[in-house]
Structures are given as C-alpha cells and as structure tokens.
Amino acid sequence: MISRCGPASTATMIAEFDHVSKRYQGALPGRGAVDALHGVTLSIPSGEVFGLLGPNRAGKSTLIKVLLTICPVSSGRITRLGRPCDDRSTLAQIGYVHESQSFPSYLTARGLLRYYGALTGLASKVLRHRCDALLDRFGLADRDREPISRFSKGMRQRLALAQAILNEPELLVLDEPTEGMDLLARRLVHETVREQRRSGRSVILVSHALADVEQLCDRVAVLREGKLVFDGHIDELTQAADAKATLEQALERLYDNHADGRCPLYEVTCP
Description:
This protein is an alpha/beta fold. 33% of the residues lie in helices and 23% in strands. Helix 2 packs across helix 3.
C-alpha cells in the first residue's frame, strides 16, 4: 500500500477512514464470512474531485456504503464532514448517485425532487426555485409531471443527478454516474462535477470510465480485494509504472503486481 505525507495530511478533510474493515457474515449461500474491506486508512481532502478505482469486488461500493452509514463498519473509525460517522445530521449535506438508481415509479420528476428536498430540510420557496432550475437544466422540464415509470434510462440518470445536487451538497458521491449515458448526458455530469469543485465543495467519483477519471479527478485511491494499494495523484501512479504509461496500463500493472503477492511497485515513503 502507498503511504503519503504530502498536502493531504494538512488539508481539511471531507472524509477520513482509520483502519476500516468490513466483514459480511454469511454473505452468500453456502459460504462463510466475506471480508470486503481490510484495514483501509484513507483521507480525502475537501474541495477536490477524488477518484475511487479498482476492479469489480475490490470494495469500492462497500467503502461508500460505510461512509454513508448504509451499512456499519466491523472495525475502525470514520469521520464525515469533520464529524463522527454516526452523526447522521451530516447526511443532509451529502448528495449521492447510486450505480443502479431506483426511484418509486409512480412519482413524477417534480414530486421526487420535492420529496428529497424536504428530507434535507430545504425551505419551500427555495425548494420550488431549485426544482424549476434543475428540471430545466437537465432537460426534464417538459416531462416533470409524468410518472417516472415512463422515463428512459437516460432520463432517470439525469433525474438522479438533479436529485443529488438539489441540496447543494458539501460532498457529492457519484457511483458510476456516466455508465450507459449518451454524450450530452455525460457532458452534464462533467459540468456538474466541475461546478462542484469551483464552488469549493467535494466529489467522490467511483468509476471504471478512465477517461472521466483522467479529466475530472485531482487524486485517486485504488482498492484491490478490500485493501488500499494506491493513494495519490494520477501522474504518480502512471510514472511509477512507466514514464509513458497510460492510466489503464498503470492500473493493469498495479492489479497484476498485487495479484501474485509481490511487493508493490507504487511505494512512496515520507521524508
């Protein structure tokens, strides 16, 4: 695993994981416990777009779930927006787009936004203004009173993004937000992420779309089999593999290196 003592150690942190482990008891029929996270220690600075990478079943979604208290940790400690993770009041300052978003199909787009806005405590006048603005921005204003059951996948994804930024969150968590999106919708995601950064707020981006990661992220962390194997800037990851390596090539080498039990190539020591 990489160890860093650079700017991240002095910056304000939007999220911190201190030796976090998660074990699912009897997660699959006929199998025993599954360890999804193994002693992950990671600090995510505020005001950045932070990428979370790794192959399937690396523990990325579990890390997000324990951060958002969707499921409890087995051991370790998490702080979120500077407060202990069990302080659920901070959840009102977070926006979240799940990789397989599911909304009540009988609700309309406007009704869904009003519902989530009320949950975050937005005043009625403010909520009404933001609903109008977001429905227009994401191309849903002319369909805002139709049930979501009539929406295409792309429309549902745009609605999910609108819902996630409705409360102008301090932390926006995006889990595979561009999967299956067309070019225009993908551009909306990029614009939203960059706007979040410009406003001094934070983004955690979980993605297999490496082009998105390279364009948007300030720093990345890489998980493999529940362990943190890299934490740093993208150019550090690529240069450690080869001066001319692409991000994809660097990740492939990192995965292979850890798969056969050899010592990591990507080791940064603190002065």
